[in-house]
Each structure stands twice: as structure tokens, then as C-alpha cells.
């Protein structure tokens, strides 16, 4: 087979004004030089987890080699040094979201962030018959914690549907907001369809009825700048590893007055003011929610990732990724039997598709042999798969280091699926 | 295309994947179980008709899955008829070895012909993530025989 079609199309359609020097940026990510099954790696599974720049890798090593001790404990030099760096990481995250440092809680990942809100805010303020409004395109992480409250105390989950393009049905959303609604918990960007939800409007409509809003920013913060103050959102969060940072570190932003009303999440060291067997008093947020030794090195690594991304420029990254998305959409649309899911008005660089002839899993296996890493399956969004009427999709999710040539490689790899399965 | 892909997606498999045999719900089935692969969301239901002597008289399936799981289910249903539970168990074990460690020569003589037909699925051995696709129908069939209604490949 040849790749002449793809190459010709790319020559015509490529945008000539790159947002930044991608070749230089790629040198910051050591893993991108490796081969997979004898072919140069084409990593298009950024929506699941992104690769790490040297800045993150070296920062984490440097902390462990020079500045490591436990935080918030010792009076000795290294403990103070580690505490300063850990708290500086919190400040970096706060700046990144335009929040105050005391409104930033470090968690393990965004799944834990939502569970924290469900277990504390949920248990304190949600009662039998109260409703939580979610969308049909939530990740399981923003469904299951609420279902656990549903089983535990009889709250109800109401679901806002999506239209055929993958946009939220805002008319239905508005009609679902009622005096029973106690919380809106919604994705800011679908991990399957790429749909960017109208966050400001979601918040405005909820606040008009006195309802707080939690937004799942796990995909959104990777693809655009987020300002929690401008959105006026009550809870927001994301995970480090999708933002080119390490695993094991996530973020929950909460308005301070809300965090201050919430009971602790887990009990243990570092979250208490004083402990005695006649009673224990808890620290103020955010420490109240960070029991035990936190992920110190990972938090500092996340701050390095945020510095990397903000120095490159979130707008420049968004521009670059949008060019890749447009190019990939054009190239893949031209493949007979290929169907793309998601045509939202505002769409991040996530491209889900199926082939008439081959199941998503077979696509994944075959393109992998060409060195192309895709996610295949239900993407932890089974209710959405049901809405789309598919068992699963193949998903290409683009990152700041992906190139137009890699999109060509993807199209070429999909043609090799056709070679086996026919059209 | 790489050699291991060619071995995985042989014509026989593609044919069974596209045109699965015994893809139906027999009205007189007296055993059934649902199988589920949480990794990819694939699910299928296996239907068996077992007579009073413990011999499987009919085997069929319905559901959705990838080429490998569909082909494996299709080929399995073709081989079960006329076998009792011990024979089926031995065949499953032989098939499982085929998909994981390879053949070890311990095959009972009466199964040789059946295993020969299943050998086209041995290519999954090069794709560890796909072994569960190939064995889903078999685990489900096993659950049906033992009276379990649901099985997952976790």
C-alpha cells in the first residue's frame, strides 16, 4: 500500500503558520523517540494519559535527590524545604486556575476529587429525594460516586441528554433544574466526543436557582485555559497525568466558603489541629482534606508540568491542536465506511470513530502494529456508548507534541485495517 | 502488514467474524449465560440444549463483539454438539492452552481434530490483550453448563 493519497492531501491542506516549533517541543519528550513494533511511535492516546516532558522528569528527580523530606512536620531544613516546594506547587495550581491557594486540595486523581465532594459535601448537604444533574456524556468517575449516594441515601440522578452533534441539550438542562436540585455535576469537555460544554452558561443557569456546580475539567484543562473565577464555578478539578504531569496527583478546586462548610474526607495525620481521646479538632481547608503524607514529589512534578504548558502558551497549544483536529477530521472523513462521532459547536482535539467493517478492538490491534497508539472501547463512558448505539469506538486524542505527519500515519494505519477487513 | 497480524486475522477468522454460525436464540435451549468483557464492552449470550444424558445437542450465541470474539464463539458452537461435559471441559482446556502457552502435546487423541480446527485462533498468543476476546465465549459456555448466569473476563 502507499500513502500517496494522505501525503497529497496533507500538502494541500496543511496550515502553514504553526503555533510553535513542534519539532523542538518534541525533543522535550524523550519517549517520543522510541519505536513500537519497529515503527516510530505515534502516540494518540493523550486523552487517557499524556507523555512527560524532561522538565517534569528532571524536577521530580531533583526533588528526590536534593530537597526531599516529609512536609508540614519537621523543623529540620529538608522538611521546611520540601514544605515550601509542596506549597509552591499549590500556588502554581492556584494561578493556573485563577484561584487562591487555600482553595486548592491535592488528591490522587480527579476520580478522588469527585469522590471527595460526594463523600463530604454530598453527605453533609444531600438528602433523600434531592437531585444531582449530570450529562449523558459523563465519564464513569462523574456517575458512580453519585450512584453510590443514590444507593446510600436515596438521592436521584437526572441526566441531560446530548443531541446528535454531541452538544448538550441546554433546553432540557434548564427544565431539569428544580427546587429539588442540590448540585450540577457536569463535564467541561467530553473525553469521547470532544464536546466543550458551555460552562459559563451551565453555571449561570444553576446559580440563578441557587444551585452549586461542579465541573469535570480532566480533559478541558489540557486543551484550553480555564479561569474558575470567571466561570464562577463552585467545584472544579483535573488530574495531573493528562496534563503532562505525573500519575498519583489530582486537584480539587472549591470555593473557600464551600470547602469551609464541608466535613473532613479521610481522618489521619496532617489534617488535624489537635487529637485527644475526648475529641479531635480539624484543620481548615485545604489541609482538612489532605490526611496523611501527600504525593509530595508528584505535586511538585505537576507544578513543573503546568509551568511547561503555560510557558508554551495554552492558546498556542489550543491553536496547534485545533489544526491537527481539523486536518484529521478532513483526512479520516475521506475514508469510506469511517464514521466520526461528535460534531459539537466547540470541540477539543479528540476524535472518536468507528469503521463499518471492523470492531474498535480490531482497529486498535492493527494500528498498534503500525506504531499508532489509540484508545479503543467504551472510554469509561458506557451510557454515552449506549446513546451513540455502539459497543465502543476508536479514539485519537491529540496532544501538544503531535504532528500533521502523525495524522498521515494514522490515516495510513486505518487503511491497513481495510486491507484486512475490506471496506 | 506484519506477520503476526496476518496470523491473527486469517481468512477463516474473518469469515466467521463476518458471518457467524449458529448466531440465533434456539427456542428449546435449556441453559444460557451472559458473558461480558468489561475492557471493551463486548457481550454475548451462549445458549445450550443439553439432553438428559448430559450431552449438548445444540449450541448457539447472540451478542456483539470484535472479529476475534465473534469468530471464536462461532467456531465453538460448531464443535460442542454431541459432546458431554467432560469432553467439552477437556476441549476448553486444550483451547485455553493454545491461546496462552501454546500446545504441550498432552492432547487426548479424540480431540485432535477439533483442536486442529481451533488452531487458527492460536495467533492471539502474540496479542496478550486479545486472549480474553478469544476465550470469552468459552468462559460463558462454561458458566452456562455449571448453572452460572453471568460471567465477566475480569
Task: Write up what this structure looks like.
The complex is a heterodimer of chains A (423) and B (154). Chain A is 42% helix and 17% strand. Chain A has 16 helices and 17 strands. Chain A has helices at 4-13, 22-26, 54-67, 77-97, 110-125, 144-153, 170-176, 199-207, 220-223, 228-231, 256-261, 296-312, 314-333, 360-368, 382-388, 404-421, and strands at residues 35-36, 39-40, 42-43, 104-107, 131-135, 156-160, 181-187, 213-216, 235-239, 250-254, 272-276, 279-282, 338-341, 350-355, 372-373, 375-377, 393-397. In chain A, a hairpin with a 2-residue loop joins strand 11 (272-276) and strand 12. By secondary structure, chain B is an alpha+beta fold. Chain B has a single domain (3-152), classed as Sufe protein. Chain: A. Chain B is built from six helices and four strands. Chain B has a four-stranded mixed beta sheet with strand order 3-2-1-4, with helices on one face. In chain B, helix 2 crosses helix 3 (67-80). The radius of gyration of chain B is 14 Å and the shape is globular. Chain A binds chain B through residues 37, 358-362, 365-366, 369, 376-378, 382, 385, 391-392, 416, 419-421, and chain B through 1-2, 4-5, 8-9, 14, 39-43, 64-68, 127, 129-130, 133.
Amino acid at each position: 500500500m502507499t500513502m500517496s493519497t494522505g501525503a497529497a492531501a496533507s500538502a494541500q491542506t496543511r496550515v502553514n503558520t504553526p503555533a510553535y516549533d513542534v519539532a523542538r517541543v518534541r525533543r522535550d519528550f524523550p519517549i517520543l523517540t522510541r519505536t513500537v513494533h519497529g515503527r516510530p511511535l505515534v502516540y494518540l492516546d493523550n486523552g487517557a494519559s499524556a507523555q512527560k516532558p524532561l522538565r517534569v522528569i528532571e524536577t521530580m528527580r531533583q526533588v528526590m535527590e536534593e530537597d526531599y523530606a516529609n512536609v508540614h512536620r519537621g523543623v529540620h531544613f529538608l522538611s521546611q524545604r520540601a514544605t515550601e516546594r509542596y506549597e509552591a506547587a499549590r500556588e502554581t495550581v492556584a494561578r493556573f486556575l485563577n484561584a487562591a491557594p487555600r482553595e486548592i486540595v491535592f488528591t490522587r486523581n480527579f476520580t478522588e476529587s469527585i469522590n471527595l465532594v460526594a463523600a463530604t459535601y454530598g453527605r453533609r448537604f444531600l438528602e433523600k429525594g434531592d437531585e444531582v444533574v449530570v450529562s449523558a456524556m459523563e465519564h464513569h468517575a462523574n456517575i458512580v460516586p453519585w450512584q453510590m449516594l443514590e444507593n446510600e441515601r436515596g438521592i436521584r440522578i437526572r441526566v441531560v441528554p446530548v443531541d446528535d452533534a454531541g452538544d448538550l441539550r441546554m433546553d432540557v438542562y434548564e427544565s431539569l433544574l428544580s427546587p429539588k436540585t442540590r448540585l450540577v455535576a457536569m463535564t467541561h469537555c467530553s473525553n469521547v466526543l470532544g464536546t466543550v460544554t458551555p460552562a459559563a452558561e451551565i453555571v449561570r443557569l444553576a446559580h440563578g436557582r441557587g444551585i452549586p456546580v461542579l465541573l469535570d475539567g480532566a480533559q478541558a484543562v489540557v486543551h484550553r485555559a480555564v479561569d474558575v473565577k470567571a466561570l464562577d464555578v463552585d467545584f472544579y478539578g483535573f488530574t495531573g497525568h493528562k496534563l503532562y504531569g505525573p500519575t498519583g496527583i489530582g486537584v480539587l478546586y472549591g470555593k473557600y466558603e464551600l470547602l469551609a462548610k464541608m466535613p473532613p474526607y479521610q481522618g489521619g495525620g496532617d489534617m488535624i489541629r489537635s487529637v485527644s481521646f475526648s475529641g479531635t479538632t480539624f484543620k481548615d481547608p485545604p489541609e482538612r482534606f489532605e490526611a496523611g503524607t501527600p504525593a509530595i514529589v508528584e505535586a511538585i512534578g505537576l507544578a513543573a508540568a503546568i509551568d511547561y504548558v503555560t510557558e508554551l502558551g495554552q492558546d498556542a497549544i489550543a491553536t496547534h491542536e485545533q489544526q491537527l483536529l481539523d486536518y484529521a477530521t478532513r483526512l479520516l472523513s475521506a475514508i469510506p465506511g469511517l464514521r466520526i462521532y461528535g460534531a459539537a459547536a466547540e470541540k477539543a482535539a479528540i476524535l472518536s470513530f468507528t469503521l463499518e467493517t471492523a470492531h474498535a478492538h480490531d482497529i486498535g490491534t492493527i494500528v498498534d502494529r503500525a506504531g499508532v497508539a489509540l484508545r479503543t472501547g467504551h472510554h469509561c463512558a458506557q451510557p454515552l456508548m449506549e446513546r451513540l448505539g455502539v459497543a465502543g469506538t476508536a479514539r485519537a486524542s491529540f496532544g501538544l507534541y503531535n504532528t500533521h505527519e502523525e495524522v498521515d500515519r494514522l490515516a495510513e494505519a486505518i487503511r491497513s485495517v481495510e486491507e484486512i477487513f475490506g471496506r | 502488514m506484519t506477520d503476526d497480524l496476518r496470523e491473527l486475522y486469517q481468512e477463516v477468522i474473518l469469515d466467521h467474524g463476518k458471518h457467524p454460525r449458529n448466531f440465533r436464540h434456539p427456542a428449546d435451549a435449556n441453559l444460557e449465560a451472559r458473558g461480558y468483557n468489561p475492557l471493551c464492552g463486548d457481550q454475548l449470550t451462549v445458549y445450550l440444549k443439553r439432553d438428559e444424558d448430559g450431552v449438548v445437542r445444540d449450541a448457539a450465541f447472540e451478542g456483539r463483539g470484535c472479529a476475534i470474539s465473534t469468530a471464536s464463539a462461532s467456531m465453538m458452537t460448531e464443535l460442542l454438539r454431541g459432546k458431554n461435559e467432560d469432553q467439552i471441559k477437556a476441549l476448553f482446556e486444550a483451547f485455553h492452552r493454545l491461546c496462552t502457552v501454546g500446545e504441550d502435546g498432552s492432547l487426548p487423541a479424540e480431540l485432535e481434530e477439533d483442536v486442529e480446527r481451533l488452531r487458527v485462533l492460536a495467533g492471539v498468543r502474540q496479542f496478550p490483550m486479545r486472549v480474553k476476546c478469544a476465550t470469552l465465549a468459552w468462559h460463558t459456555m462454561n458458566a452456562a453448563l455449571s448453572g452460572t448466569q453471568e460471567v465477566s473476563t475480569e
